[in-house]
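FAQ
Q: What does a multi-component entry look like?
A: The components come first, one per line:
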Amino acid sequence: MHRQVTWTKVLTPGGKWSGIIGRGRLVRLTALGGGANVSTLLYHADNPAERYNMPDTLKAQHTAHLTKGHVLMSDNGRVLASIVEDSLGWHDPLGAYTTRALTERRYGRSTYQELRNDWLRNARDNFAMELVRNGLSLRDLVPVVNFFSKVRCDAEGRMHFAAGHCPAGATVTLRTELDTLLIFSNTPHPLDPARTYPSVPVRIDVLPAEPVDPDTDLCVNLRGENRRAFENTWEYLALRRELG
Amino acid sequence: MSDFVRKESGLREEDAVCDAVIPAGEGWMRDLEPGQVLRIVDLEGNQAVDTLFYDADNPEDHYSAVQTIAAQGGIYLTTGSVLLTESGKPLVTITADTCGRHDTLGGACSAQSNTVRYAHEKYHMHNCRDTFMLMLAERGGGYSKRDLAPNVNFFMNVPVTPEGGLTFADGVSAPGCYVEMRAETRVTVLISNCPQLNNPCNAYNPTPIRLLIWNP
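Then the predicted structure of the entire assembly, as tokens:
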């Protein structure tokens, strides 16, 4: 069925955005060119000390990559968001995010003074600004999800960035399961060997989600671990909700 | 399976300025001065040692699993690995390692993650995240849950497959294996000697560790 987009925003190359997106919404990211990367942090809006936890997410689902059916778990055993659609099959949870030092080393030094708004921004500075905007600080930095990127590990544990993984038009859609503070940074993947700064806008669309059917929903039923994380989430909501 | 790189230390136990045994289920938190060397000994083998590091002069800049592995281009930690903060500052360098591989993707167990991974009935079981929080509470000085980022698991083996799978393999450590690290700055070390009973990370039998410190 057709669902009305309720909000849309384009992240320019190097751009950032943060905001609280209430539970029960779809958040669709669309790469408007090839080779996109969006480094993403997630916090529970009710209590941002609860946040996306990379190890808890990966070990519960026995995976080192993220795609449709996986959920992004908090460090309190709950689901912040589910991945309900994905045209790529692999998004990277291991590859970190860019810093100013890395960005200057790879692409050359650039300053606002010289280039005005075309200067080359980095994820750490973007996150610093958005964390502080939301009452948090750099101590709240944790491993990110790098949407649209793929990093494969070989038998020796070496990390290999998959060039050409993300074509123009690639999409991934999250469904918020709790009120979630999302912080997006449209900055290159730290392991992307390209010498020119990727110039790929990414569109964010927010739409209403259909109610979750616990019996048939892919993310709930992917494995027992997912169901128990949803049960923890529903328990939290039951305790918080107004008594009817 | 890759070859494990094992390197022995030249330091002598009798020269250590600190020598402590930490039973399973207990924690340890203290500062290292630059150049001091910390050795963690897996006394009985196959014991996971969950460890976090902070820049002691700026505790907001904590250990970063992903900055560390991205900078070295590989997910396993061993001799030569430099453990970095979120800002990229070196905290410690692993200088000796008779185990040969350590994990930094598996994180620390918690009551909540135990309910997700195993069963809701596991909620009561002791866990690393609780030990971390008790240590932070006793330390004071403004530390809070916000400072608990994903950690290192010394002596633990969590292989990633080329297809992107994550597995918890049997331990790669053995009685008496140790890992040694040199402080590159003033570093606060936070350890939970893991009490996990639900998976093979401790061979279902959590055991004590020994910690030694040498001056430069």
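Q: Is there any commentary attached?
A: Sometimes. For this entry: The mean pLDDT of chain A is 96.
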